[in-house]
Design brief:
- The protein has 958 residues and is of the alpha/beta class.
- The strands form 5 sheets. The chain has a 12-stranded mixed sheet with strand order 14-13-12-22-21-20-15-19-18-16-17-23.
- It has 3 domains: 255 residues, Rossmann fold, CATH 3.40.50.300; 251 residues, Rossmann fold (3-Layer(aba) Sandwich); 308 residues, Rossmann fold.
Length: 958
């Protein structure tokens, strides 16, 4: 009963529970539906987060750092550029050092490969070797990772690595990218020998470059001249013998401190030699592809080689980029403050630093005798772009700042381009500067030095000594003798066209005897290969103790006989401009015999400034006799009148020489600032007129007028700038000889008005002669011709009536006539085959015939032989002109004028330089020379003005 009463209540509760259950079911269905909705949105949510993650990576690793972190397929490679050489932190900049290197990606499996981070291994500064271990079926994967690492290192450290690639089993096939790499050590087909080169580098760096720091800890500006050495070994140990493995183990243990790191593809299918285990590489990080590699649930996916198009584009960018370079400042290593210039003496040797060696050392060059031995001469080899030209400048100015012109003189010869030594025209130490030299001239410089050797030996004999050191220490009884340094660039040019083998003979003589008399030579070329035409090479190089080598082709280095094995190995590392190996021991190996370093860099601006300051110092502190008059010879340009060392010497005098002083000067040798004319007699009132530069070191083409019969000069040639250039220079020369009271000029100029040379004689009178007080009469018109000739004849008649004792005091009269064929009244009758002359022609002929013995000299010039024959009879009239100067002309005219074909072949080697021929009919001598020209490298008119100003100063002082 009681139970029945409860039934309705229970049913109500059940109904309530059912309702609640239905609500729960409905809620559950809603939750399930909502959950299913979220389930569908979860991948989208996480994909968006993964994409944001990837975007963050893109921002973290932009194109410039793609080489360190990103896979080869990343889009950033399209914008990659080499050259993140520095990392700037605040105000300082340091070199980027990659402490890790990418080998692939760590991939989150649950993200279906969408979540990944770069997998990095220790690299520089971590003292680690990377070994990639492969087993069956994994060879290609392991090799591909090795290749990827090789390419990545080249891109991570652009221009800062040398790769040593070892592949004895496949003969290089494992490294198809080899030719694209900037610096690869040449293989010898002997792995041990290749690794020995790496070990030698490690030893060198440890002993001469590294002190208390590892290679990567050295400052960037010092370290950049060396390179990381990265060794990649493929298919190890296949065909690696025990010796090679031993060397490789040594490198992995000792190399990282010296910047040498090894990457080894270990093929475990190949048995290692007995007693060798892979554990011998004790500091290795092993990427074991034979086992599954996971980190926190993320799997390693290793890199393969980048696609070919990416390789091509990145290597091209790498090849086009400029390598980082440490420039060693000249002022820091070589330069001196001015108050320290010229404080060294050259009694025993000359020396100068030229650059840096190792991290803190100096690179030095010296010639002479010291406690370290004897170094007589030197040779320098370096290919184009190696920094050889810069090194010449460093050497020249390094020496010039340390030794005064009283201690050291230079003979500088550029056998080819002639550009580099231009600066030294004004260097007070420069005795000879020869630019774009012909082989003939270069050989004459050698001859000059052999003559100087003989002269010095005679001096030593009289002083009772045997060498320069003894002579200088004895007190220099016959005056100071400075050391001489001959520098010849492209010395192989010396032997071109040398049929008589003069160059070889001179070089051998200097090589054998030069050191004892203080003459040293430094020969430069693009390499050390044998020079065609060079004889006695063994004897010459036997006395060349200083040997310097810069960058040159590997094949040339391997063929060197001038260096031994260690030296050649170091030369192989000269892969940047300025890097150099210096050896003062005839190229032999030995303790510290070979010094590897970098030459200082000298800018053109600083170079010019130093030369100018040296010239100023010389002028302020030295006497004129202690500063050599520089002989400049530009093989492709016309000479400058004021650079004639004899002209310069005369201009330096405060007054004109007396006849006796002029005679003494004329009879002296060229080496003593003389004219080298032993038969100069002041009684004949001789006057010298310079025409140009002889094809020898000191020779100057000249005419010497004496009071003898037929002492007149004729200049003929169609190259008018040279014809009138000689004429103007000749007039200036005459004014240098004697005082205004001893010289007079009468000029009849019939050159065509408006031409470049039509006003030359007028300008010479105004700017050069008249300011100094010379008497000059100049006429231009046809109507003046008879008047001029009558005036000269009156002087002639007056002198004929004088006795000889009075005649000798009469001034020299120089009658200058140009283009007389334009004077109709002087022209010989047309069709005349006899010696008949016009009335005015008879007067002119009489002046030429009778005047010179009385001190009246005629200088005449025509554009051609034919116009000359209209005025002067080619048989009888021309005979009165002993001195004949010819420019290029036709063969027939040459036969008429100089009695040979020589004047027809003057320009056989081209139009530049202009060449002329001087003929002395009495002595039947012929001299080829480069004439002065209106088109000179220094303004012709300015040169003549300066001569006039100097002469005017003399006149004032008198």
């Amino acid at each position: 009963m009681f139970g029945r009463e409860k039934i309705p209540l229970l049913e109500d509760k059940i109904g309530t529970l059912r309702q609640r259950a239905e609500k729960v079911k409905a809620m559950t269905r809603g939750l399930i539906k909502h959950a299913k909705s979220y389930e569908a949105r979860i991948p989208e949510f996480f994909d968006r987060r993964l994409q944001q993650n990837q975007g963050g990576i893109v921002e973290l690793f932009p194109a410039q750092t793609a080489d360190r972190f990103l896979p080869w397929g990343a889009q950033q490679w399209a914008g990659w550029l080499p050259g993140s050489f520095e990392v700037v932190d605040g105000s300082s900049a340091t070199a980027f050092i990659p402490g890790t290197i990418r080998i692939g990606d760590l991939v989150e499996a649950r993200s279906n490969g969408k979540f990944q981070v770069p997998a990095m291994l220790p690299f520089i500064g971590k003292n680690r070797t990377i070994i990639i271990k492969t087993g069956a079926g994994q060879y290609d994967q392991g090799l591909a990772l090795l290749q990827s690492l090789l390419i990545r290192t080249a891109l991570m450290l652009p221009h800062q690595t040398t790769h040593t690639l070892l592949d004895p089993a496949h003969l290089g096939q494992s490294f198809p990218m080899r030719t694209s790499l900037a610096q690869v050590q040449a293989n010898s087909q002997d792995v041990r020998r290749d690794l020995d080169q790496v070990i030698e580098r490690i030893v060198r760096l440890n002993t001469s470059f590294l002190e208390h720091q590892a290679f990567h800890e050295i400052e960037q500006d010092v370290r950049i001249n060396e390179r990381y050495n990265l060794i990649f070994a493929a298919d190890f140990p296949n065909r690696y013998d025990y010796r090679a493995i031993e060397a490789l183990v040594t490198i992995t243990e000792t190399g990282p401190r010296a910047g040498a790191y090894a990457f080894i593809h270990y093929n475990s299918e190949i048995n290692l030699p007995r007693d060798v285990e892979i554990t011998a590489f004790k500091n290795a990080t092993i990427v074991d592809l034979t086992q599954k590699f996971t980190v926190n649930g993320m799997e390693l996916r290793v890199d393969a080689m980048p696609p070919r198009d990416l390789q091509v584009s990145t290597f091209k960018k790498l090849g086009d980029s400029k390598p980082p370079e440490r420039k060693i400042e000249f002022e820091t290593i070589v330069g001196l403050e001015e108050n320290r210039w010229w404080h060294q003496n050259a009694d025993s040797l000359i020396s100068t630093p030229i650059g840096a060696s190792g991290a803190t050392g100096q690179l030095e060059v010296w010639l002479g005798e010291s406690e370290k031995g004897v170094v007589a001469h030197g040779v320098l080899g370096g290919a184009t772009g190696s920094g050889k030209s810069n090194l010449y400048h460093v050497l020249i100015l390094g020496f010039a700042m340390r030794y005064s012109p009283q201690e050291l003189r230079f003979f500088l010869i550029d056998g080819k381009d002639g550009v580099e030594f231009q600066t030294y025209r004004k260097l007070p130490h420069a005795e000879v500067v020869s630019l774009k030299s012909s082989p003939q001239l270069s050989r004459s410089v050698l001859k000059e030095l052999t003559v100087e050797q003989e002269r010095r030996n005679e001096i030593f004999s009289r002083a009772g000594v045997t060498n320069l050191t003894q002579y200088r220490k004895k007190g220099q009884p016959e005056g100071n003798l400075p050391r001489i340094l001959l520098m010849v660039d492209e010395y192989q040019e010396l032997f071109e066209g040398d049929k008589d083998n003069q160059a070889s003979q001179y070089l051998e003589q200097i090589a054998r005897q030069g050191r004892s008399v203080g003459i040293h030579m430094l020969l430069g070329a693009q390499g050390f290969v044998g020079v065609q035409g060079m004889l006695n090479r063994t004897a010459i190089f036997g006395n060349i103790h200083l040997r310097m080598a810069m960058n040159m082709p590997a094949t040339d280095i391997q063929a060197l006989t001038e260096f031994q094995r260690q030296g050649k190995s170091l030369i192989m590392t000269c892969d940047l401009p300025g890097k150099i190996v210096v050896n003062h021991q005839s190229g032999n190996d030995g303790d510290n015999a070979n010094q590897l370093g970098k030459a200082a860099y000298l800018t053109p601006e600083i170079r010019s400034e130093i030369v100018a300051n040296l010239a100023r110092k010389a002028n302020d502190e030295l006497e004129t006799k202690d500063i050599p008059v520089t002989i400049v010879f530009d093989g492709k340009a016309q000479p400058n009148f004021e650079e004639n060392h004899l002209v310069e010497y005369l201009l330096q005098q405060n007054n004109w020489f007396s006849p006796e002083e002029l005679q003494a000067t004329a009879r002296r040798d060229f080496h003593e600032e003389g004219f080298n004319v032993p038969n100069w007699l002041s009684a004949e009132r001789p006057t010298i007129m310079w025409l140009g530069q002889d094809f020898s070191v000191r020779g100057q083409a000249s005419v010497i007028f004496r009071r003898r019969t037929d002492e007149n000069a004729m200049i003929i040639g169609g190259m008018n700038v040279a014809r009138f250039g000689m004429l103007g220079a000749g007039i200036a020369s005459i004014a240098l000889n004697k005082t205004p009271s001893e010289i007079e000029f009468i000029m009849l100029d019939r050159s065509i008005p408006g031409t470049e040379w039509s006003e030359l004689l007028t300008r010479m009178a105004k700017n050069t002669l008249e300011p100094a007080g010379f008497k000059v009469e100049i006429y231009r018109e046809n109507r003046d011709v008879e008047k001029v000739l009558d005036q000269i004849l009156q002087i002639l008649s007056h002198r004929k009536a004088m006795n000889e004792s009075d005649l000798q005091y009469e001034p020299e009269v120089f009658c200058v006539f140009t283009e007389l064929d334009r004077v109709d009244d002087l022209r010989r009758p047309a069709g005349s085959y006899t010696s008949s002359e016009s009335p005015l022609g008879e007067k002119l002929n009489r002046i030429c015939q009778e005047g010179s013995s009385l001190g009246i000299h005629t200088i005449m010039t025509f554009s051609n032989v034919r116009p000359m024959t209209h005025v002067i009879d080619e048989r009888r009239g021309l005979a009165h002109f002993r001195h004949r100067i010819a420019l290029q002309m036709a063969e027939e005219e040459s036969l008429t004028f100089v009695r040979s074909r020589r004047a027809a072949t003057l320009q056989s080697e081209g139009q530049q330089p202009i060449v002329a021929l001087y003929m002395d009919t009495d002595n039947d001598t012929n001299i080829r020379f480069k004439p002065y020209s209106l088109e000179a490298t220094i303004s012709y008119d300015e040169q003549m003005k300066r001569v006039g100003q100097r002469l005017a100063q003399r006149s004032t002082s008198v």
